[in-house]
Amino acid sequence: MTATPVTRKDVLRRTAVYAAVSICSSVVLSLAMAHMLFGNNPDASVPVGFVTISVVGMGVICSSLLGGGLSYRSAVLLQKLSQVRAELLRLSCTDQLTGLLNRRGYDEAATLALTKAHEAKMPAVALMCDIDHFKAINDQFGHEFGDRVLVEIGQVLRSFAEQHDMLVARHGGEEFAALMIGISTEQAVQHANALRRACAATEVASQGVSAYVTVSIGVASSQVEMNLSQIMRSADQALYIAKHGGRNRVARAEALMDSIAA
């Protein structure tokens, strides 16, 4: 749910309303107390002790009402400000086009997940996905259709991530990143191929134009003490292999190491 922003004008207006209510309440209480003390005869004699107790009691009541009201108003404002701050934080970590995490949000969430995985001695595998021939798609069908492609592929990734407990984000441009915890590299490759087929089977349609797009995916497993930047760099190198190997395929970072060793 999107929080409603609290502006300075709102705060001033609400404060003025509460001040007016407080003043009216004080006047009413004062009149009621005067009537209780003197009745309809302002010249009536009243014991000094009774007047003192009454004045003190009225002061306590007014102070309690005023303090309680101000405390309640402050709590409401703090809650709204907290909601606004949380919403701003969410927006700063979210890609506005696809609704997925953006790179900043991904880096924060993935760093935390990777740290926990290392502490628990659990394997972690990173994926880098890139939409094939995306520039040509933009050139042929226009940038609006290109945005539609990003949205559709983002939805496929979101659905796949929910089914396989995968952290996923739009990493930038037409690239998407993902992190999987607790599975082997072989299992991750199987998931990556399933994801690749799901993307290839998705028809993108907009304003009478439709097309099928494919993705290339690089897979890299986390080694001991490997930080997020290093594992993502390895996944990006694996993506490079997939792109230059013909696209619409999955490549492992180990393949690059094997080719270097050979």
Structural class by sheet pairing and helices: alpha+beta
Q: Please give the share of residues in helix.
A: 55-70%
The CATH architecture category of the largest domain equals: 2-Layer Sandwich
Mean pLDDT: 82
Number of helices: 8
Gyration radius, to the nearest Å?
A: 32 Å
- The third-level CATH topology of the largest domain is Alpha-Beta Plaits
Give unreliable regions as ranges: 258-262
What assembly state would you assign to the polypeptide chains in this entry? single chain
The rounded distance between the terminal residues' Cα atoms is 55 Å
Total strands: 7
Largest sheet: 5 strands, mixed
Q: Please identify the top-level CATH class of the largest domain.
A: Alpha Beta
Percentage of residues in strands: 5-15%
Shape category: elongated
Placed side by side, the strands forming the largest sheet appear as: 2-3-1-6-7
Structural domain tally:
2
Listing every helix as H and every strand as E from the N terminus to the C terminus, the arrangement reads: HHHEHHEEHEEEHEH
